[in-house]
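User: Hey, my collaborator sent me this sequence without any context and asked if I could get a structure. I don't really work with proteins. Can you help?
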Amino acid sequence: MNRDIAVEKAIAYNVTYCKDHGILKGFLENLSTEEVNMLATEWKLEDAPRVREEEGEQRGIQKGREEILKLFDAGYSAEEVRE
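Assistant: No problem. I've predicted the 3D structure and written it out in structure-token form, which is a compact way to encode the shape of the chain:
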């Protein structure tokens, strides 16, 4: 079995086991699939600022989309939203 696959399966098993047995349950339930997958990847400290920036950018984009939809829902036209 490929080492990476074995590590991923071990992490998935242990996360499920911990959830089922109430070990760090609240913490683990709030993890996304992506975050659990990150446990299996090699992490380098120098990557942290770039990853944080990318995550912040994605949150900003999502927040912008939500704001635009609120404006449309409030009856603003595309031109008014653009302004």
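In plain terms: The helical segments are 3-20, 25-29, 33-38, 48-73, 78-82. You can pass these tokens on to your collaborator as they are.
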